[in-house]
Design brief:
29% strand, FAD/NAD(P)-binding domain, 24% helix, alpha/beta
Length: 448
């Protein structure tokens, strides 16, 4: 079947959905189809919470209602080739789509490690396919000894969630010196590790998996420290690589592990083809180097830029680079990071001034549910401009890290931060007299 369409979006994740909805808002007269290679998608950030926090795994389904309400078509199919000359996409089902504008939101795939035995039954990659994930959840719930490989955000969240299930022994293995070490300085990694240990999670750091043993199913795992432990299930929480094959085959510029090259407006080298989300190349906000950040928040920001500017540059706003704002939740503890850590800033050659403030996230400190807080801000020594920030506390983390993200994007200085006007409330924030971001900025201003 051959079909003409104004805008074809390949990919039904957050980037694809928001790209399509934004395009419909700015170009209501255009016909739009979103092509999905799985019938039932999921909310990527909610995957770990399908194991315990959500009563029903189906509650994490990424529905089609917003697309249907906006008269956007949905095709369950998989693109296998793009002919840029004839502006045609061919699919696995034998369909042909002629497009005016094409948006690639083809995402990423789980990274594959060269570990012997990785193909055994009981080893679970994390695919964004609801039908697959529901089977994975069922298998894990019927397991007793579970190993999570990878101490980044997704690995930590999996370990935390599975530890909530009754009768489970959970191990978390990380090859780096600390968990979350790509996004936090070590003092914040230590806080995360202590919280995980308090939940009975066994943490192995500076350790690799050498071999997964068993006849057909997982039985034991051999680690680089010589230990051999029994497991019946393994979850790979080790990150992902961008899907670029479709773009490479179409002679679009792309690089392995970096993604499809795009300009400031998410255009590829073909002005009628855009790339957004995990599959698109990212540039660091400060260094402009390629970065492998894969976040739904970043993907949807890119989707809005692309969707608005498919035919004309209606929204004159450059995509200024990826700040990399992260948050994670471990049994009441929230850890958040934005921009450069002290470690990465120094590695990039920045001369920095750092300030850390300890306190509480409500006021007065005797209120119920108060959590200890730690805020660390990293500034350029010469200019006083904010480079990054890290926070650990309770739910107040969310509003503080987003404030830091805006401050980074607007290149705010320590002086500007120490004179911020903020809304505060005893149950929602730290005290206005001791607001940690302001105190940290004041300390840096004094040092400068």
């Amino acid at each position: 079947m051959e079909k003409k369409i104004d805008i074809l979006v390949i990919g039904g994740g957050p980037a694809g959905v928001i790209g399509a909805l934004t395009a419909k808002k700015y170009y209501p007269e255009k016909s739009i189809i979103v092509m999905k290679n799985v019938e039932h998608g999921c909310i990527p950030c909610g995957i770990p919470y399908m194991f315990a926090s959500l009563q029903n795994p189906d509650d994490n389904k990424l529905g089609n209602i917003p697309l249907e309400k906006n008269n956007i078509g949905i095709a369950i199919d998989e693109a296998i080739s793009i002919n840029r000359n004839s502006k045609m996409v061919e699919t696995k089902k034998g369909n042909k789509y002629l497009y005016e504008k094409l948006v690639l939101a083809i995402g990423s795939s789980p990274m594959v490690l060269p570990i012997p035995g990785l193909d055994k039954e009981g080893v679970y990659q994390i695919y964004k396919d609801m039908d697959y994930l529901k089977k994975c959840v069922e298998k894990i719930k019927n397991s007793k000894k579970i190993l999570v490989i990878g101490g980044g955000f997704i690995g930590v969240e999996f370990a935390d969630e599975i530890a909530k299930l009754e009768g489970k022994t959970v191990h978390l293995v990380e090859m780096l010196p600390n968990v979350l070490s790509n996004s936090f300085d070590e003092e914040f990694s230590f806080i995360a590790e202590e919280k995980l240990k308090s939940k009975g999670i066994n943490i192995l750091i500076n350790t690799k998996v050498e071999e997964i043993k068993g006849k057909n199913k997982v039985e034991k795992v051999l680690f680089s420290n010589g230990k051999e432990l029994e497991f019946d299930s393994i979850i790979l929480g080790i990150g992902a690589v961008p899907n670029i094959k479709l773009a490479v085959d179409a002679k679009l510029e792309a690089a392995e592990r970096k993604g499809i090259w795009v300009d400031e407006y998410m255009r590829t080298i073909d002005s009628d083809i855009f790339a957004i989300g995990d599959c698109a190349c990212k540039k660091d906000f400060y260094t402009r180097k390629d970065t492998s950040v894969m976040l739904a928040s970043t993907a949807t920001a890119e989707a809005r830029i692309a969707g608005a500017n498919l035919y004309k540059l209606k929204v004159i706003r450059e995509h200024v680079g990826t700040i990399a704002i992260y948050s994670t939740y471990i049994d009441g503890l929230v850890l958040s990071s934005a921009g450069l850590t002290e470690k990465t800033a120094k590695q990039e050659g920045f001369e920095v001034i750092v300030s850390t403030v300890d306190g509480v996230d409500k006021h007065p400190a005797s209120l119920p549910g108060v959590s200890k807080s730690k805020v660390k801000l990293i500034f350029s020594k010469q200019s006083g401009i904010l480079l990054g920030g890290q926070i650990s506390c309770g739910m107040a983390c969310a509003q503080m890290i987003n404030l830091i993200g805006v401050a980074i994007q607007k290149r705010m200085s320590a002086t500007e931060l120490e004179t911020l006007q903020l809304a505060t409330h005893p149950y929602l924030t730290s005290a206005p007299t001791t607001y940690p971001i302001i105190l940290a900025a004041q300390e840096v201003s004094r040092k400068i």
